[in-house]
Amino acid sequence: MRARLIRAVLALYPAAIRERYGDEIAELLAASDTPARDLADTARCALHDRLTRRADTITLAQARTAAFIVFKLVVAPLAFGVLLLLLLTTAGLLADVTGAHEAAPYGYALAVALAAASMWWFGRWMARSEPIVAAAVVIPAALALGVGGISAVAPIGDVLGEVRAGSLTAVACWAVGATGLGCAVSVLLRRGRRVAAWLSSVLGALLLLDAVTAVYVVTALPPERAPRHNAPLWYPSAMSWWDPGLVDGAYLQLEDSIKMLPPMLTMCTVFLLAVVGVAASRPSTGQLNGVTGT
Fold first, then answer.
1. How far is the CA of 23 from the CAs of 11, 26, 232, 258, 259, in angstroms?
2. Do 34 and 171 share a domain, yes or no?
3. How many Å apart are CA 133 and CA 273, to the nearest integer?
4. Engineered SS bond to 221: which of 75, 89, 201, 226, CB 3.0-4.6 Å?
5. 240 lies in the same domain as 134
6. 287 within some domain
7. What is the signed CA dihedral for 189, 193, 199, 203, rounded to 10 degrees?
8. Which residues pair with 250 in a beta bridge?
9. Could you state, in chain order, the average pLDDT of each consecutive group of 10 residues for the chain (294 residues)?
10. For residue 226, which phi and psi values (nearest 5 degrees)?
């Protein structure tokens, strides 16, 4: 237990200090006769070093750049939604032109997959061109603000879900879960555990999206309309338009209620993991200094 607390306290230090003095501090804390007091003092010093270091090094131009990046992240879900609507509309038009209406669900699923793939490419490009500080925390918070803002606007928000309280609750839960997922993947990548990070990304994303879809349905629909034992099927149904009668015992009633919220949160999750994957793969400042000899 003490070892975990020591690692948590050391994580509060700036990377350069942690890499240079981390082992020495950890040894002192491990041998301390007053561990609680020394851990608290060390945590206070670590936070002070981190805050003063940022205050000393950040410039007005950097602050403006960081603020502009956050602004772009907040409005990004609007662009995500426009892209998704265009792809879904195209899939629907193709089904009408070809007369293959029975294949329309496959076209919609393909449209969502293309939108998610676009978010993966865009996330990696953005992470390489505009490094985002604390991406695993900043991105979920900013995207949640953007999606929540869309949900709160009456005419537009109906596209994400017909019950606004359900949409906002699901988005808030997504932000918390996405932050945890992003941090976990980032830690695994920094430790060189790429296979574990990849598995955690896929499984964690699926579990998170399944859970937040269930949060929406449970918040928005009563049990008699949406039997709770069908909860694990709600997200796959919303993404694939396969529906054996999960709401009101009728085909596509779930889609009519939940609309575009699951695809939107899927795109946000893919974007987050793409950025975190690039950010966590960069060498730290200490490693760069060791390589260059500075």
1. 12, 5, 45, 51, 52
2. no
3. 15
4. 226
5. yes
6. no
7. -60
8. 247
9. 74 77 82 80 75 53 73 88 86 79 76 90 88 85 92 78 87 95 90 90 95 93 89 88 79 78 93 91 48 34
10. -130, 90
- Give yes or no: residues 24 and 141 share one domain: no
Task: Assess whether 7 and 126 both reside in one domain.
Answer: no
Q: Which among 11, 42, 57 is the end of a domain?
A: 57
DSSP 178-193: HHHHHHHHHHHHHTT-
Same domain? For 51 and 80 the reply is no
Residue type (1 letter), 153: V
Q: 286 lies in a domain?
A: no
Considering the domain architecture, whether residues 99 and 35 belong to the same structural domain is answered as no
| C-alpha–C-alpha distance, residues 59 and 65, integer Å | 10
The reply to whether 67 and 199 lie within a common domain is yes
Do 14 and 110 lie in a common domain? no
Its pTM stands at 0.73
Distance CA 24, CA 268 (A): 40
Question: DSSP letter string over 53-114?
Answer: HHHHH--HHHHHHHHHHHHHHHHHHHHHHHHHHHHHHHHHHHHHHHT-GGGHHHHHHHHHHH
Rounded-to-integer distance, Cα 29 and Cα 3, Å: 9
